[in-house]
Design brief:
Blueprint: E1 2-3, E2 6-16, E3 24-33, E4 36-45, E5 51-54, E6 68-77, E7 82-84, H1 86-90, H2 95-124, H3 141-173, H4 177-209, H5 221-230, H6 236-249
Antiparallel strand pairs: 1-2, 2-6, 3-4, 4-7, 5-6
Helix pairs in contact: 2-3, 2-4, 2-5, 3-4, 4-5, 4-6
C-alpha cells in the first residue's frame, strides 16, 4: 500500500523458502495504481518492525528449506527495497525462463542422486525375484531393463536442460517476444522431462531395492520426499499445455515467471 508517508506492506505470505535463514525476504506484492494491480518485488529485512516469521513449514520433503509463513503488519518500506516486477513481465525478458531452469536442475539433480544410490543397492543388497531364474538381482533382466529406462530418461532430461540453457542465453542476449517465448518453452520441456525422470528414479530406487530399501537407517526416502515435494512447485500439466500450444499453433506462452 502507498500513502502520503510512503509504502507499507500488509498481509501474510506462505511458503517463503529460506525465510528462516534470510537477512532479507524477497516478497511479491501488489499495489493498486491507476485502477489496476501492479506487481513489485520488495526485499524486506527480517528484523523490520511489523515482520513476524512463523516456523510452520511441515512438508515431508525439502525439510530444511525454512519455507515458513511470514506476517506483515503495516511494515514500512524504504524506496530502495522496492524493485519493479510487473515491468519485467510486460516487456519480453528472460527473467521467467531463467528462474524456471533452476528448478529443472534441482529435480534432475535429485533424480541423478537417486539413481546413483540405486546402483550399489542393487549390486550389494537387493534380491532377485523367484521367477527370474538368476541368483543375483544384478542379473535379473527386468531389473536391468528398469535401470536402463531410468538412465535413458535422466540422460534425456539432462540434454534438454543443457539445450534450454542455450535458449535462455539467447533470450538474455537479444530479448524479444519470440526469443523469450522459445526460451520459456524450451525450459518447460526440460522441466517436464526432469519432473518425470526425477520421480521415476526415486520410485525405482524402492521398486528395485526391495523392502530393505525402506530401512530408516538408510534414509533413502529422502530422494522421493524431496523430489515429490519440489516437483509440486508449479503444475507440470500446464507446461505440457503450453508446449503443445506453441508447437501446434505458434501460441506464445504467458510471461508470468511460472512456466
Amino acid at each position: 500500500m502507498r500513502d502520503p508517508s510512503g509504502w507499507t506492506v500488509e498481509g501474510r505470505k506462505y511458503y517463503c523458502t529460506g525465510s528462516l535463514f534470510a537477512h532479507r525476504i524477497p516478497t511479491m506484492v501488489n499495489a493498486e495504481e491507476e485502477g489496476r494491480a501492479v506487481a513489485y518485488l520488495v526485499f524486506i529485512p527480517r528484523d523490520a518492525p511489523g515482520v513476524t516469521l512463523v516456523d510452520d513449514w511441515d512438508g515431508f520433503g525439502q525439510r530444511i528449506t525454512g519455507s515458513g509463513s511470514i506476517v506483515f503488519d503495516r511494515v514500512r518500506v524504504e524506496p530502495d527495497w522496492v524493485v519493479p516486477f510487473q515491468a519485467s513481465m510486460d516487456r519480453p525478458t528472460a527473467i521467467g525462463p531463467f528462474a524456471q531452469i533452476l528448478h529443472a536442475g534441482i529435480d534432475l539433480g535429485i533424480g541423478q542422486g537417486a539413481f546413483a544410490a540405486t546402483l550399489p543397492f542393487v549390486r550389494d543388497r537387493a534380491r532377485p525375484w523367484i521367477d527370474s531364474g538368476v541368483s543375483r538381482a544384478r542379473e535379473d533382466p527386468l531389473t536391468l531393463h528398469a535401470l536402463g529406462d531410468v538412465r535413458v530418461r535422466l540422460a534425456a532430461a539432462d540434454a534438454l536442460l543443457e539445450r534450454a540453457g542455450r535458449f535462455v542465453d539467447a533470450a538474455q542476449a537479444e530479448p524479444d517476444a519470440d526469443s523469450v517465448a522459445a526460451a520459456s518453452v524450451a525450459v518447460a520441456e526440460a522441466r517436464a522431462s526432469s519432473h518425470r525422470a526425477g520421480l521415476l528414479a526415486a520410485n525405482k530406487l524402492f521398486e528395485l531395492g526391495g523392502t530393505s530399501a525402506t530401512d530408516r537407517a538408510q534414509a533413502l526416502d529422502r530422494y522421493w520426499r524431496n523430489v515429490r515435494t519440489h516437483t509440486l512447485h508449479d503444475p507440470v500439466r500446464w507446461k505440457y499445455h503450453w508446449i503443445g500450444a506453441y508447437h501446434l499453433d505458434g501460441r506464445l506462452p504467458p510471461r508470468h515467471g511460472a512456466l
